[in-house]
Structures are given as C-alpha cells and as structure tokens.
Design brief:
The protein is mainly alpha-helical and about 210 residues long. The chain is built from nine helices and no strands.
Amino acid sequence: MLQLVIGSFSLSIVHALIPNHWIPMVLVGKTEGWSGKQTLWVTAIAGFAHVLSTISLGILIGTIGLNLSYHYQKFTAFAAPLILIFMGVLYFGMEFSQGSHNHLPGKDKLKGKSKQAIILSMVVAMFFSPCLEVETYYFMAGAIGWQGILVVSIIYMTVSICGMLLMVRLGIKGIERYKWHFLEHHEKKITGTILITLGILTYYIGF
C-alpha cells in the first residue's frame, strides 16, 4: 500500500505542476481583470471538474482491475506492472512525436467572451480532458481492491486541486516570469519515467 501511495503522489504532483495546467488560469485572470480570489475560485471549480472526470473514469478502470484480480490473480499480478511499463514507454514515444498537451483553452480563444462563458469554457475543457497517466495507475489500484482505488482517488484529488491553487497563487505573484520550459516540454518523459519505475518496482516487490 505504501508503494501505491508514493506512486499516486508522484504522478499527481507532476500533473499539478505542469505549466499548461495553471499558467492559462493566471493569464486569463489577468487579461480579464479578475481579482486573485476570483482567479483562485475559477481554478478550484475547473480543477474539481478535471478531477471528477479523471476519478470517474479511473473508478471504471479500477473496477476492471478488481474483477480481474478476483478470477485471474496471477494474471493481474503480472499484467498490472506490465501495463505501467508499456504506458511509460508509450509516453516516452509521445515525447518525441508531439508537443505538450493542453487541458485549458488559450486566452486568445476566450477573447471577447463574457465571464460566465469563459468560466464555462474552462470547466468544460478540464472535464473532458482526464489525465490518462493517472488512469493507468487505477488498474493496479483495482488489483489491490476498493481500498486501493479510494487511496488513489483521495491523493489525486487533494494533490491536484491544492497543487493547481498553489501554482496559480504563486503565478499571480509573478512566478510565470520564470522559465518552465523544461517541465513543460518534458512532461511526458518525466511521467513515462515514473510509470516505468513503478511498473518495475511493482513486478519485483509486489503491491
């Protein structure tokens, strides 16, 4: 279970720190003249929508892992780490085939819209872009049981929303002036490394 907690936290913290998750919030808030409190509220709402869709899909994937573990325990013990390693390699491949992904629409696409329309656009965009790297981990959590699924969900929700709020708060104070290009352009490589490492550890150490 400790390994599950560490893995969930690692994936969630990387996810929350990715610039494309929070810098657009800061830029739109400043462009629209929102107060810091208003920007943080919009971030919380959009972040919750993002977490809700990710956890909902994750529970479905975790249930599949749970059902398989009941009937094919040996297969699941082998398949869970193999899937993590495969997804890690896949993310490495994506690093070289395309740029970083965006959950939020750019401020240019929101130009001229009302405040309500802007907030709705952000919430909808975040809801329909669940994080697939975390979804992969739900399969392994499901092999542990509902306790594992619950642990991943709580950690992901807490770290993601708190992380986004923290980064937006710092962004309002000017942290966006710093260079975030490495994290932004190597997100998939970092995620892939974490997934591969977790897969190897799971295979040799177990859940």
